[in-house]
Amino acid sequence: MKFYYVRRFERDLDELWEELKRKIEEEGLLIVGERIPVSIVERDDGIVADYHVLFICDREVVAELVKLDPNIGALMPCTAFGYVREDGVYVGVGLPSVAWRIAGEEVVELMKPMEEKLKRIIDSL
Question: Looking at residue 100, what is its pLDDT?
Answer without folding.
Answer: 87
